[in-house]
């Protein structure tokens, strides 16, 4: 049933929006929604076989490919304007300046490893279970 709804939604989207204009100009892009549908089918196949890990991976692939379907269809628009296409938010008029991107890249390169190191340290400190008595402050 979900497959029928998903395909119906894709067909409706073709008529209700301009989402498929990029797909029509570059037909090879139709592989992305086809992969999404295939991953959805594989999710059901893996669930019936009892292979939960593969079903989870196929479900994740479905979600990613459906998101990519929308992003590819909207490119370069992020939020299309219903008033005038000139008012649409695009990746070009919505991006940060090169200086801002350079600064944020440097900040990410410095602080992401610090956060990862902190998370590893916290995990190591709290890795052992404690007894209810130790949690209440009693020592043995």
Q: Which term fits the overall shape?
A: flat
Radius of gyration: 24 Å
| Widest β-sheet, arrangement of strands | 1-2
Number of helices: 6
Count every beta strand, where a strand is a DSSP E run of 2 or more residues.
2
How far the N terminus sits from the C terminus, by CA atoms, comes to 59 Å
Our count of domains comes out at 2
What structural class do the secondary elements suggest? mainly alpha
| Strand composition percent | under 5%
Percent helix range = 55-70%
What's the rounded overall pLDDT mean? 89
Task: Give a structural overview.
The structure is a single chain. The chain has 140 residues and is mainly α. It has 2 domains: 2-90, no CATH class; 98-128. It is 67% helix and 4% strand. It is built from 6 helices and 2 strands, in the order ααααββαα. The protein has helices at 2-16, 21-25, 31-49, 52-74, 98-125, 132-135, and strands spanning 77-79, 89-90. A two-stranded antiparallel ribbon has the order 1-2. Helix 3 runs antiparallel to helix 4 (52-74). It is flat. It starts with a helix and ends in a 5-residue tail after the last helix.
Short description:
With 140 residues, this protein is mainly α. It contains 6 helices and 2 strands.
Please specify the SSE layout and strand pairing:
Layout: H1 2-16, H2 21-25, H3 31-49, H4 52-74, E1 77-79, E2 89-90, H5 98-125, H6 132-135
Antiparallel strand pairs: 1-2
Helix pairs in contact: 3-4
Provide tags for this entry.
2 strands, 140 residues, mainly alpha, 6 helices, two-stranded antiparallel sheet, 2 domains
